What we know:
The complex is a heterodimer of chains A (171) and B (387). Chain A has helices spanning 15-19, 39-50; strands at 54-59, 65-66, 72-73, 78-86, 89-95, 97-98, 116-121, 129-133, 147-152, 165-170. Chain A is mainly beta and 171 residues long.
Amino acid sequence: xxxxxxxSGGTGLSEEDIRSGKIFLTEDxxxxxxxxxxxxxxxRYLNELKKGKIIASECRECSRIMLPPRMFxxxxxxPSGDWVYVQDTGTVNTFSICHVHWDASRIKEGEKPxxxxxxxxxxASSGMGIMHLLGEVEPDAIKIGMKVKAVWKPEDExxxxxxxxxxxxxx
Amino acid sequence: MKxxxxxxxxxxxxKFVRRALETPKExxxxxxxxxxxxxxLRLEDIDCVAHGTAPDAFDGIHQNGEYMVDxxxxxxxxxxxxxxxxxxxxxxxxxxxxxxxSGMFDTCLVVCEExxxxxxxxxxxxxxxxxxxxxxxxxxxxxxxxxxLEMNRYMNRYGYTxxxxxxxxxxxxxxxxxxPASQFRDEVTVEDVLNSEIMAYPVSRLDVSPVSDGAAAxxxxxxxxARRITDKPVWIxxxxxxxxxxxxxxxxxxxxxxxxxxxxxxxxxxxxxEPAKQINIxxxxxxxxxxxxxxxxxxxxxxxxxxVELLRDGHFARDGNLPMCPSGGLLGxxxxxxxxxxxxxxxxxWQLRGEADERQVPGNPRLGVAQAWGDLMQVSSVVVVGx
Lengths: 171, 387
Ligand SMILES: [Zn+2]
């Protein structure tokens, strides 16, 4: 027996249905907190950021200089070997000009858009990008391939976090 | 390796809506019951359930799979939840295929559901928690950011324009107008897409699929059982899936490496040598317009960098050589995440049986591919189906 019905249910509600109390809602919020251990490799990375330096790790097998540093190379599945300092300069692989906050709410009138980018860091293996923000640049002046340099927080304000780099600015 | 042939024998959907009255469980029930009715089966005929729903955070219920079991007919049956972000909807089909192909079960219900409207103020906010807690989350990223980064890289690599991407949005959205589950009723032009609000350059509002609530279900059966249930089984010819590294910024984003691998795996299994010539219908995952094109390239259905040219020439139109998203896709029907991928498989089921009504692709299509994608732009699942 074949039934012709293919779509059933999915009763759409309007804002008015909800505002007028025609349907019942129950509201709740969850308050969860976490204390993450930063682990072996990232602890070292964060300590170096606090000193104003970027450190990577090198795979003994494939010689990739990996950023963020890891204790193992995910391609070779071998422990990584030496720690290697890389530059605090790099190249913009791609970027966006973002008008929404993390929770999808719109930025306010006059508020500057976020300028996230993937930045390939000099001294790490080719293609090793990290996500960060761009600054001290007009959005329409940003170009893929542009050279950039980290702008660090003052030393006494650094906490050992990726945000110890405020942003990357054009070189 | 001895695997049994597995067919899709029934399919059902709910309407995809901005905000549904039904709970996730109720949405799942509607789609599941519709799928069972479509092939004249009852729940007692079903041996096991493969279930998919995206982040627990959307529903605010941790380990949501257990909660959902009743709605997808899984009580007191071997039921497994699969979750690989946006790829869930096709991955759950792969999951169900394993259950039946292995010889373990004769029938399997595959049910995927998403209710995105419960999360306040916006489901997007919960995506902050998919990023690395230490090296990325402190920057307060958003999924729109990383998709915008990918879209910009893709456009820049091949010299594609915003207008080129808008053409894909229009193709899919116009197809979606004919879909009975679609949450849209208005025609959209390239101008509309280009003039829509900029969210995260180069992504504008109409480059993106909407948030939706909805569910989708299919019934799978082993060969002899399938032939008893229907005289029009649609066979699962090939499956493939991969996860690429979570260090997403270390990949070159212009090409979906994860999909390349998954597609080749599915085509090999299906014995397909020249996908661009052999596949009759493509349902690439299209939460953003550029992704439809990006994924056509990853699916080996379009030469890299030539996809816009083919789109302009009508190659991917409903009556073209290789229709792209005749369902309307996520852009044209809606994007209840896990359900959206399964909706694509439902579409191929109806298309290959010649039951797609107004959306029917001409020329008796025999082979289709559906694909879904998710997480940190790293996972893809592919299903090839044929008659
Ligand atoms: Zn290595």
